[in-house]
């Protein structure tokens, strides 16, 4: 069972300025819940009990969101607002710990993960990139319980001991925005030979290749289950694409050493680090929100022509 997860949240969110000047981009809300809370809930649903935020001094609001707000709770209690109080307390369910570590310098995703080394210690762990929202709404297992992609990856790691990397096919013209993997058995560039929910061995991976160089269109989506050996490899990894220490480069070494598998997503992702992805996620969550979904649907059905 994987118990710990690293969430790198130190990025300054320049794609979301001016909104992200004083508010961390991870605190932008989908209706009434910050994006980061959705990601933490995804981790908890996969059995994670220790969340490690690799963060920056300008992003204290994230730590505050997962802390107890005693005055607010007291006030709600006095006013008898029990439903709100319950909601507030459920942000961090009992038994779940949030720990934060500072990433003083912006040296890349690989460096951010390395910052969590002492807290993770010698055990496998998950990584969730908080820009990406993985939506497993409606997916259930044979016992009728919700089943998430991260939970499936964690189970697969526990069974095989092999690194699991969440991937999905992206349009060929977008391959330069992602880490790209090529499967051992790949025989064409379309990478259709990996079914949703299936894991297969990776032959190689490359961070943000040019469109011509890309060995496939199978992109790393932002969820990983990794062994602690990755820390030793990250410590030796030289700067790569974008002049940053890249997790993908250390993973490429790891896979030559001990193998790694690509797990293909069953759900759907929204890139909440981009304006359109964020709007898409907002739309979907508003259409599901128990309080506003009906009125919101009526509202979008009656939008005037722009
Ligand atoms: C990171 C990873 C990349 C991955 C992407 C997914 O890149 O380095 O391999 O495909 O996340 O969102 P970033 O988007 O942080 O530049």
Name the features.
single chain; 306 residues; Spore Coat Polysaccharide Biosynthesis Protein SpsA, Chain A; 5-stranded mixed beta barrel; two-stranded antiparallel sheet; 11 helices; 13 strands; 22% strand; globular; binds 1-O-phosphono-alpha-D-glucopyranose
Class of secondary structure makeup: alpha/beta
Radius of gyration, rounded?
20 Å
CATH class: Alpha Beta
CATH architecture: Alpha-Beta Complex
Sheet with the most strands: spatial strand order: 8-11-9-10-12
Question: Strand-residue fraction?
Answer: 15-25%
Helix content: 25-40%
Largest sheet, strands/sense/barrel: 5 strands, mixed, barrel
End-to-end Cα distance, whole Å, is 51 Å
Task: Describe what you observe in this structure.
The longest helix is centred in the last third of the chain and has 14 residues, at 275-288. It contains eleven helices and 13 strands. α5 (109-115) packs across α9 (247-258) and α8 crosses α9. The chain is an alpha/beta fold and 306 residues long. β2 (29-30) and β3 (33-34) form a beta hairpin. A five-stranded mixed barrel has the order 8-11-9-10-12. A two-stranded antiparallel ribbon has the order 2-3. A two-stranded antiparallel sheet has the order 7-13. The protein starts with a strand and ends in a 5-residue tail after the last helix. The structure holds 1-O-phosphono-alpha-D-glucopyranose. 1-O-phosphono-alpha-D-glucopyranose binds next to β11 and α9.
């Amino acid at each position: 069972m994987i118990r710990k997860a690293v969430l790198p949240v130190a990025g300054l969110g320049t794609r979301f300025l001016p909104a992200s000047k004083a508010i961390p981009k991870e605190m932008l809300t989908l209706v009434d819940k910050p994006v980061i809370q959705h990601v933490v809930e995804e981790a908890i649903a996969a059995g994670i009990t220790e969340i490690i935020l690799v963060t920056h001094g300008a992003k204290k609001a994230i730590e505050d969101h997962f802390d107890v707000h005693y005055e607010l709770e007291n006030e709600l209690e006095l006013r008898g607002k029990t439903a709100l109080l319950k909601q507030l307390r459920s942000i961090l369910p009992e038994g779940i710990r949030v720990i934060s570590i500072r990433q003083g310098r912006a040296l890349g995703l690989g460096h951010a993960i390395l910052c969590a080394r002492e807290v993770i210690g010698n055990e496998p762990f998950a990584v969730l990139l908080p820009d990406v929202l993985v939506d497993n709404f409606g997916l259930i297992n044979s016992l009728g319980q919700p089943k998430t992609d991260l939970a499936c990856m964690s189970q697969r790691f526990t069974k095989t001991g092999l690194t699991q990397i969440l991937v999905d096919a992206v349009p060929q013209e977008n391959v330069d925005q992602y880490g790209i993997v090529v499967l051992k058995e790949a025989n064409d560039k379309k990478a259709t030979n990996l079914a949703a929910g299936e894991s297969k061995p990776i032959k190689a991976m490359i961070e943000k290749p040019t469109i011509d160089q890309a060995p496939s269109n199978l992109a790393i989506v932002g969820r990983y289950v990794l062994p602690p050996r990755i820390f030793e490899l990250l410590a030796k990894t030289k700067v790569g694409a974008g002049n940053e220490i890249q997790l993908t480069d250390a993973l490429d070494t790891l896979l030559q050493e001990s193998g790694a598998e690509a797990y293909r997503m069953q759900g759907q992702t929204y890139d909440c680090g981009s304006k359109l992805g964020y709007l898409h996620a907002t739309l979907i969550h508003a259409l599901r929100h128990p309080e506003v979904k009906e009125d919101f649907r009526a509202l979008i059905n009656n939008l005037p022509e722009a």
